[in-house]
Amino acid sequence: MPDDFERMWGDLAPVGRSASSGGYFRQPFASAERELAQWFVEQCAARGLRVETDEIGNAVGWWDVGSGPAVLTGSHLDSVLDGGAYDGPLGVVSALAAIDLMRARGVVPTRPVGVSVFVEEEGSRFGLACLGSRLASGALSWEAARELRDRDGVALGDVVPGAASSLLSSVGTFVELHVEQGRDLVDRGAAIGVASEIWPHGRYRFDFAGAANHAGTTRMEDRQDPMLTYAMTALAANKQARLAGQRATFGRVAVTPNGTNAVPSAVTAWLDARCSTDAGLAELVDAIGRQGSERADRDGTSLTVTAESVSGAVTFDPALAAAVAADHEGGAWPIIPTQAGHDAGILSAAGIPTAMLFVRNPTGVSHSPAEHAEVADCLVGVSALADTLDRLTR
Questions:
Q1: Ranges of H-type helices in 142-299
Q2: Which of 113, 215, 267, 369 could tie 226 with a disulfide, CB 3.0–4.6 Å?
Q3: Separation between Cα atoms, residue 334 and residue 358, nearest integer Å
Q4: Residue 35: helix, strand or coil by DSSP?
Q5: pLDDT by residue (tens digit) across 315-340?
Q6: According to the model, what pLDDT value does residue 328 have?
Q7: Are the C-beta atoms of residues 60 and 115 closer than 8 Å to each other?
Q8: What backbone phi and psi angles, to 5 degrees, belong to 171?
Q9: Is 229 in a helix, a strand, or coil?
Q10: CA distance 174 to 196
Q11: Are residues 27 and 79 in contact, defined by beta-carbon separation less than 8 angstroms?
């Protein structure tokens, strides 16, 4: 017998979890994430689902019923560094549990149903978010992806064989369930929501160059300190984002030579920026870069800005979102935007009709060990996903 939702969730809970922080380290193609990938194969086998994989590491467990374009659901199993338990795995576990619930209800879909696991959704290892779904959908070629490198200099092409993927060739619709990464549903008093759009967002590398020198003997006025330029640029990012009502975060920094008693020669920092419009995103990043360059001129340093990953605005099919949200016990589910990127956004941009379900997060916290969803809400999410799959496969 396949495991139920709570048993599956309990099985996943210890995998990749830090004993000190309680957060998760499930980086792509490393031991914890590979253990979860094998767990997924075993759960598919317990349900009689046929597992199909590609040369990138993406996987789909197929419920081979009916005919015609398939309905795909699922999410990802990797995490950010020291992340939460729910971001990604909730969608995979809920998808498997939804198939169980559909079968228990006697539902026999008229179209095939698949449960997907996309690799490297977070971009925590190779720096490009939604890497697996970009490759599977053709939004990114293997030739362009194979030289992506992790922090240790290992190339993606040295980790997986890689090739063009046909995994999504039969997919007609995609539905992703995800923990909400904010407090919209909490404020509305709703357990479930449906996505209307994903804000445009990007990752940008800021390379600050200066001159290494002695921390004690070098007068402050004689320094070319890139750390100072970086610090002022981070403050500028905060101010610009607040003024525009948008998002800007410097969350990762690398310093050379990274010594306590040395003025650094270089600082590399990565900016995550998100805005409500594509034009707003471009304006925000330009403003931050301009202020950083002006500060570099005063500090005797230099700044080079490189866009490493940029995803445009995604508007989910309004008719599909409305159909998914409508006519439920207690009324229609709210339709809300999200500022977080998802595999659903990549598939939608590739022309696959796509919808997203969100499960209420009582803390609103995500990408953190404090990320949470109550079991009762998770079970409502399973039922909501089963209802949605039933509607889409009649």
A1: 142-145, 184-188, 226-244, 278-299
A2: 267
A3: 10
A4: helix
A5: 999 999 999 999 887 789 999 999 99
A6: 85
A7: yes
A8: -80, 130
A9: helix
A10: 14
A11: yes
270 vs 206: CA distance, rounded Å:
6
| All domains of the chain in start order, with CATH | 5-199+313-392 (3.40.630.10), 201-311 (3.30.70.360)
Question: Are 182 and 361 spatial neighbours (Cβ–Cβ below 8 Å)?
Answer: yes
Nearest to 225 by CA among 301, 324, 113: 301
- Nearest CA to 230 out of 305, 296, 155 is that of 296
Digit-coded pLDDT (tens) for 128-144 = 999 999 999 999 999 99
Q: In angstroms, rounded to a whole number, what is the distance separating the alpha carbons of residues 175 and 56?
A: 21
In 3D space, the residue among 41, 36, 68, 43 whose CA is nearest the CA of residue 53 turns out to be 41
Rounded Cα–Cα distance for residues 368 and 61 (Å): 29
Burial (CB count <10 Å: 0-12, 13-18, 19+), residue 221: exposed
pTM of the model: 0.89
Phi, psi of 269 (to 5 degrees): -130, 145
3-state secondary structure of 293: helix
The tokens of 198 are what? 């994903």
| Of residues 304, 316, 310, the one with CA closest to residue 350 | 316
Angle, alpha carbons 195-197-201 (nearest 5°) = 125
Given a cut of 60, is residue 1 above it in pLDDT?
Answer: no
The residues that bridge with 70 in the sheet, in sequence order, are 171
Question: What is 95-146 written as a DSSP string?
Answer: HHHHHHHHHHTT---SS-EEEEEES-SS-TTTS-TTHHHHHHHTSS-HHHHT
C-alpha span between 180 and 90 (Å, rounded): 11
Environment class of 16 (CB within 10 Å of its CB; exposed 0-12, middle 13-18, buried 19+): buried
**Buried b / exposed e across 316-337, counting CB within 10 Å, b at 16+?**
beeebbeebbeeeeeeebbbbb
